[in-house]
Amino acid sequence: MSLFLFLILVALVLGIIGFAAHGLFYLLVIGAVVLLADLVYAAARFRRGGRRHRLTR
Question: Angle, to 10 degrees, between the axis of helix 25-48 and the axis of helix 2-20?
Fold first, then answer.
């Protein structure tokens, strides 16, 4: 979960710098790509996470 939050923070910072700084539009694009990759990672992890738990009796 901490990796997910860290990547969200990185994507946000890159997006803000890319939007605010003149000529650094590529950072905005990189931030968007990192955000999309992070959402795909989180979706795969949360989808797969339910099968690992065993019921204890």
Answer: 160
